Amino acid sequence: MELLKRPLGEYLKHRFGPQAQLVREERFPRGSSRLTYFVEYRPGPGADTVSVVFRGDFAGGSTIHSSLEQEYYMYERLGHTDVPVAKVLTWEASPEWTDRPFYIREQIEGSWQVPHVDDPDPQYDDLRIDIAKEHLRNIALVHKVDWKALGLDARLPAPADAQSAGTHFLDRLLSMLREYQREPMPVVNEALAAFRRNIPAAPLVVLCKGTNGRGEEVFKDGKIVAMSDWEEASIGDPAADFASMQDMFPTIMRDGVEIWNLQHAIDYYNQVSGHGVTMENVQFYLSLRTFGSVLYGQKTAVIMHNGNADIRQGWTGTEVFYLMKRMNGAVAGICEPVEARWFDELNETVV
Questions:
Q1: Cα–Cα distance for residue pair 43/13, rounded to 1 Å
Q2: Cβ(260)–Cβ(251) under 8 Å?
Q3: Element holding 31 (H helix, E strand)
Q4: What is the CATH number assigned to the segment(s) 8-106?
Q5: Of residues 39 and 249, more confidently modeled
Q6: β-strand pairing of 212-213 with 245-246
Q7: What pLDDT is stored for residue 261 in this prediction?
Q8: Rg of the Cα trace of the chain?
Q9: Which helix (H) or strand (E) holds 72?
Q10: pLDDT of 301-337, one tens digit each?
Q11: Which residues of 20-46 are buried (b: 16+ CB within 10 A; e: fewer)?
Q12: What angle do CA 47, 51, 57 make, to 5 degrees?
């Protein structure tokens, strides 16, 4: 395992007892932010296997602006709430075992893939809507977390009030971009000006998950059993989470009528949460997502400049980065909108 100085089998004995035996080790092939390993071990002879997840940064660093320790902290804090998350087991930073910290959490049985959810056959329309609603119910659960009681604002900067939530979100992204920026980006400056002219007030201030939806949550039998990847968590407008909902509000047509779309998703969310998220706010954060993605491109450029990038990070820092700058140009009104085929080609590149 890349995260360890010594064999994984030795580490399992150190961490889980002298009779622990390695059964399986697998690196998760998706994701360019951090390393993820799935590990199965047997605590002792004849015992059932135990599945855990090792999570750490790439050797050259992470494309994500937040620290691994913050991600671990989010799991630990949310373990005291009703939000379904995996239990964290340990934080490892001993130089005896590793040159860079990692943490271990339980692996929850399930999959990020839901059978037939991508099948365009109309017989699966209801399934797609049910999965979207299941996800929205869980996002509403995240938004009901008492972030003040959990002390999350000690790690996640919070806006002063709902009125300033959008400005706070944008200023936070800009501050991080300035920390990692490697090149002039006039098109991004033009987009920033457009964003600032259209910042809406939030209906309230909540804990936001960040990246969510397909590929981020663990499903079993059509239900979410664990919500994963909290590295982009923030405190602000609940509409911001709609900007990061991967494939969770597909447009579904039946007899020439849209029976499910983004507005339906917003309405359902408001129904189960009691919040007043509007399409205006969601559209603002959807546009602003392009600016946030530029940040990842510049963060990755630092890793590539240091000569120690993972191949997926190289992809993020080139092709994805170029696409995000094109999208910022469209926001500023100086480029044509990006064609949908670009996203299809990018999705086909992900393996």
A1: 9
A2: yes
A3: none
A4: 3.30.200.20
A5: 39
A6: parallel
A7: 92
A8: 21
A9: helix 68-78
A10: 777 666 666 666 666 666 677 777 777 677 767 777 6
A11: bbbeeeeeeeebbbbbbbebebbeeee
A12: 145
141, HSE (Cβ side, Cα atoms, 13 Å):
16
Residue 48's DSSP bridge partners are: none
> How far is it, in rounded angstroms, from Cα 272 to Cα 254?
25
Determine whether domain 122-293 maps to CATH 3.40.50.720: no
Q: Which amino acid is at 228?
A: S
- The answer to whether residue 351 scores a pLDDT higher than 60 is no
CB 331 within 8 A of CB 191: yes
The residue behind tokens 């500023």 is 332
* Cα distance between residue 236 and residue 164, in whole Å: 9
Structure confidence by residue, pLDDT tens digits, 189-233? 777 888 888 899 999 999 999 988 887 899 999 999 999 889 889
The predicted pLDDT at position 350 comes to: 41
- Tokens found for residue 168: 């706070």
Strands 245-246 and 234-236: unpaired
Segments making up each domain of the chain, as ranges: 8-106, 122-293
- Residue 202's nearest CA partner among 282, 287, 291, 139 is 282
Q: Which among 31, 34, 37 has a CA at the least distance from the CA of 62?
A: 34
Q: Which two tokens stand for residue 299?
A: 């963060």
